[in-house]
Design brief:
Elements: E1 17-26, E2 32-40, E3 47-54, H1 67-74, E4 78-83, H2 100-114, E5 119-128, H3 130-139, E6 146-152, E7 165-166, E8 169-170, H4 173-186, H5 199-209, H6 214-218, H7 225-228, E9 243-248, H8 254-263, E10 268-273, H9 291-303, E11 313-318, E12 332-337, E13 345-352, E14 357-359, E15 367-370, H10 398-401, E16 405-409, E17 416-420, E18 423-429, E19 436-444, E20 450-459, E21 478-483, E22 487-491, E23 496-502, E24 519-522, E25 528-534, E26 541-543, E27 555-559, E28 563-569, E29 574-587, E30 593-605, E31 612-624, E32 627-639, E33 643-654, E34 657-669
Parallel strand pairs: 3-4, 3-5, 5-6, 6-9, 9-10, 10-11, 14-16
Antiparallel strand pairs: 1-2, 2-4, 7-8, 11-12, 12-26, 13-14, 13-25, 15-24, 16-23, 17-22, 18-21, 18-24, 18-25, 19-20, 19-23, 27-29, 28-29, 29-30, 30-31, 31-32, 32-33, 33-34
Length: about 675
């Protein structure tokens, strides 16, 4: 396609930027994806290109994130945003996340861009969350023009570290909320174009062919080939281009970030901060940093061959902080190291005693303690992958600890810095075939408050590996290892550690089906907590990261106050959670208005945890001058001891008139979940 056909001189609302919208990019099967090109205002190139490739609609819903491609164009780099097949304005059908079609399309997009006369031939992929997943998975295929990638909040293991399963347990809140959004999102129409007379029919065909992804996910309850597809953990050497890994201590994907920093053999840079799943310049938990400056330095290094003396790995060491769900900043300092893990980190063992203590030396005695599957545990915990409120960090853990088995250390004679992956080694037994072991590590303040440092879970039927299921047998002993989420936290001298064990972590996890939890052996070396402690702080070099700089304004947003309620239903003997959000987005330079409404409700039965119920509704409404499109998705899920019962309903309307309605229902056997 010639440069004159792209209308590169189209004006944009931002100085120094030209915008080409809905540029068609042909795929190998004839499908056309649509892209928006943000180009420097002057000249004809050639310029390097940075691509964000995701299904969250380039034209409206993600307008607040146009700020990066706009700023890139102002700095002489072309920013490109592409709708994944079957989403937004792209053709085709979105059959699943990270499908083989989608990854092949990504390769075709890169090849097409690299062949354009205005492109220098150097192309980078980047993104947050879904965009990071795609950047990593496409990089594994080694397309020739992919020069470097940035993966913020992505994963190397689609089963072990993502919103579907954790530790071989089914996620509850995340498994309901994310696919709920995607059912309604994938059913939205393409951006209306004045000369498209078949637009309404194209939309109807999309809705009639799209399928909810969560049925597929629930049919794969083990770490099988479905999840291994696209998981970098199968071969870290698959990526040969440079990788910038950006993670956060309060994100759901921290573990993946640290594994990649340690195991990727290509040139790698790391940045790990105190943030949530939001970008480092927008996280509700700070301190925030100049994220675009970090990105620009990386791309100038690899796309423009400019020198850069940034340290290979920088991380934020969190100092002790009081428990609160919505802190605005975490105390701490930035440090730089040359590699991960840093030199000077050593595993130190702590042992649980029969007297409820946590000690550095094994103590005499031997007993068994029963850990119950009490679904009240977890309500004081954090969201698995918090973004902005009502998502949250953990509250004071003392309420959860009332229904758990706990072990406390003596006051620490000196401060401890935990840096890396803790783990619990335990000897367990059970009277039921399915049980979970949920582990929390907390910092106990002198007045008794408990700040959650980290947590981990293991479905004990996956004790021999996440790909293998072996039900528990009465009387059979098993030695298990429960990995805890990677963390970085300094505990002051004079304070204490608390280890807490439970059989539930609700609403993060869908509860195990039986009220009885596992029995845990205590005494000697039977229950061992292994902590990665930084003993030598001299290996750390203190650094300063600049605060965020203003980026171009690309959308105006406003929202109703988010709602979050924890419920105790005394008559029915159950606990629950209700949450709702409403946001309105007006993209700059567009005559459209997007409304995003979400409500979610989860309930778990105290005496019969197999009876868990969930319901959510997601509504998207897009108002254009030509009319109003709306999709409404309702997802309901309930369980028995043997099955999950799942129902999905979808309604799409245009100017208040139904375009199509669809309904899906299926009962899926629990695979030792």
């Amino acid at each position: 396609m010639a440069i004159s056909q792209l209308d590169l001189a189209a004006p944009s609302p931002w100085s120094g930027v030209r915008l080409a919208r809905h540029v068609p990019i042909p795929m190998r099967d004839g499908t056309r994806l649509r892209a928006d090109l943000y180009l420097p205002a002057e000249g004809t190139g050639p310029w390097p290109v940075v691509v964000e490739y995701l299904p969250y609609r380039k034209d409206d819903l993600t307008a607040p994130r146009w700020n990066v491609p706009v700023a890139l164009a102002q700095h002489g780099i072309v920013g490109v945003r592409v709708d994944v097949r079957g989403t937004g304005s792209s053709g085709g059908i979105a059959r699943d996340e990270y499908s083989e079609e989608e990854l092949q399309d990504g390769e075709d997009v890169l090849a097409w861009l690299a062949a354009q006369p205005w492109c220098s031939g150097r192309v980078s992929l980047w993104g947050t969350s879904y965009g990071a997943f795609n950047a990593l998975q496409i990089a594994m295929r080694r397309p020739p023009h992919l020069t470097a990638i940035v993966a913020h909040a992505g994963s190397d293991d689609r089963y072990a570290t993502d919103v579907h399963y954790w530790g071989g347990c089914l996620q509850a809140m995340e498994f309901l909320s994310y696919p709920l959004w995607m059912v309604a999102l994938n059913a939205l129409p393409p951006d209306p174009e004045p000369d498209d007379t078949r637009w309404l029919e194209t939309w109807r065909q999309r809705v009639e062919q799209v399928e909810p992804w969560l049925f597929t996910w629930l049919h794969h309850q083990r770490q099988d080939d479905y999840w291994l597809h696209g998981s970098l953990a199968t071969d870290y050497k698959a990526i040969t281009c440079p990788v910038f890994v950006v993670g956060a201590w309060h994100d759901g994907y921290t573990d993946a970030a640290l594994r990649m920093l340690e195991r990727v053999s290509a040139p790698v840079r790391g940045l790990i901060g105190p943030w949530t799943h939001e970008r480092p310049d927008a996280s509700p938990v700070g301190p925030r940093i100049d994220f675009f400056g970090e990105l620009l330095a990386w791309w100038r290094r690899w796309l423009l061959n400019q020198s850069d003396d940034t340290a290979p790995i920088r991380f934020y060491l969190q100092e002790a902080y009081r428990p609160q769900r919505y802190p605005t900043t975490i105390p701490g300092r930035w440090y730089a190291v040359e590699h991960w893990p840093p030199t000077g980190v050593h595993m130190t063992s702590w042992f649980a005693t029969t007297e409820g203590k946590l000690a550095l030396s094994p103590a005499s005695g031997d007993t068994w303690l029963t850990v119950t599957n009490d679904v009240r545990v977890g309500l004081s915990g954090s969201s698995w992958c918090p973004t902005a409120p009502p998502d949250h960090l953990a509250a004071d853990q003392r309420l959860d600890d009332l229904f758990a088995v706990t072990f406390d250390s003596d006051p620490l004679p000196e401060s401890l810095t935990i840096l890396g992956f803790p783990e619990l080694c335990a000897v367990v037994a059970a009277d039921v075939p399915v049980a979970f072991l949920c582990v929390r590590l907390s910092h106990l303040w002198e007045d008794g408050q408990a700040t959650l440092i980290t947590r981990g879970v293991l479905n004990l039927t996956r004790r021999h590996g996440l790909q293998r299921v072996e039900p528990l047998r009465p009387g059979e002993l098993a030695r298990v290892r429960v990995p805890l989420k990677a963390c970085c936290y300094r505990i002051p001298a004079g304070h204490r550690l608390r280890l807490a064990l439970s059989g539930a972590d609700f609403p993060t996890l869908w509860p195990a089906p039986y009220r009885q939890g596992p029995h845990v052996r205590v005494g000697g070396k039977a229950l061992e907590l292994r902590l990665p402690l930084l003993r030598d702080h001299s290996v750390l070099r203190s650094v300063t990261l600049p605060e965020p700089q203003p980026l171009p304004v690309t959308a105006v947003t406003w929202s109703s106050p988010p709602y979050l309620e924890h419920c105790f239903d005394l008559l029915r003997g159950r606990v629950g959670i209700r949450r709702s959000t409403e946001e309105v987005i007006r993209p700059v330079g567009r005559e459209s208005l997007v409304t995003d409404l979400s409500t979610i409700e989860l309930w778990a039965d105290l005496d019969r945890p197999s009876r868990c119920q969930a319901h959510g509704q997601q509504v998207y409404r897009i108002e254009w001058p030509v009319g109003v499109a709306e999709t409404r998705a309702d997802v309901s899920m309930q369980s028995t001891s043997q099955h999950f019962h799942l129902t999905v309903e979808l309604v799409a309307t245009w100017n208040g008139h139904t375009v199509t309605e669809r309904r899906w229902a299926e009962s899926i056997a629990r695979d030792a979940l």
